[in-house]
Automatic annotation (TrEMBL):
GO terms for molecular function: DNA binding. It holds the Pfam family HHH_3. Keywords: Membrane, Transmembrane, Transmembrane helix. This is Helix-hairpin-helix DNA-binding motif class 1 domain-containing protein. One of its GO terms (biological process) is DNA repair. It comes from the Bacteria. SMART domains: HhH1 (SM00278). Gene3D superfamilies: Outer membrane lipoprotein wza domain like, Tex RuvX-like domain-like. InterPro entries: Competence_ComEA_HhH (IPR004509), Endo/Exo/Phosphatase_dom_1 (IPR051675), Hlx-hairpin-Hlx_DNA-bd_motif (IPR003583), RuvA_2-like (IPR010994), Soluble_ligand-bd (IPR019554). GO terms for cellular component: type II protein secretion system complex.
Length: 205
């Protein structure tokens, strides 16, 4: 046996080396193949997480600020959520006062950002309170310009009917354009109470 080992020692060493090389060569692709699998797993997890984040962002509700005036217990600016209606904002303002004229209010209108809501009192001039005219979606772009508005536009304002819209038009034709919104009080029938209802809804620009 010893003689055989001496005689074939070189072949044994070469055979062992070839065997080890073969094992290493065979195992290396398996190790390398694990890397793409891990990368693929990481990519899959990241791919799943992104839509979830986007979905969470989509479910965030828009915050709306609206101004409620007139015959409510606590007038003021209130925060509302998208989809809430006028009746919800009235509740936040403490409800209607005993002299509120609920027959002239559309409680089902959805509240919009920067909306001005005026709740009329019983006995107030009914003209201009029908339908959506009680509620003016705010922002500068929706203010009624008393220097250029025609009678139909003026009559969308609370308490402004044909006679008062005609008075506004007559005043500006005789005296020129209004320089300030306060100047409207110079017209007969436009006292401080009427001006309080209109000041946030009109402009001269």
């Amino acid at each position: 046996m010893k003689e055989w080992l001496k005689q074939y020692k070189m072949y044994v060493i070469l055979g062992a080396a070839a065997f080890l090389f073969g094992v290493f060569y065979w195992m290396a692709p398996l190790e390398n193949s694990k890397i793409p699998q891990e990368d693929e797993a990481e990519w899959s997890m990241a791919d799943l997480e992104e839509p979830q984040k986007e979905e969470a962002a989509d479910t965030t509700q828009k915050i709306i600020m609206a101004d409620i005036k007139g015959a409510v217990k606590t007038p003021g600016v209130y925060k509302a959520e998208e989809g809430e209606r006028v009746i919800d904002l009235i509740d936040k303002a403490g409800g209607l006062t005993s002299d509120a004229d609920a027959s002239k209010v559309n409680f089902s209108i959805r509240v919009a950002d920067e909306m001005v809501i005026y709740i009329p009192k019983k006995g107030e001039e009914a003209e201009g309170y029908s339908g959506n005219s009680t509620f003016t979606a705010g922002g500068e772009s929706t203010l009624v310009n008393i220097n250029s508005a025609d009678s139909s536009e003026l009559e969308t304002l609370p308490g402004i009917g044909p006679s008062k819209s005609a008075a506004i038009i007559e005043y500006r034709e005789k005296n020129g354009p209004f320089k300030t919104i306060e100047e409207i009080k110079n017209i007969r029938g436009f006292g401080e109470k009427t001006f309080e209802k209109l000041k946030d809804l009109i402009t001269v620009n």
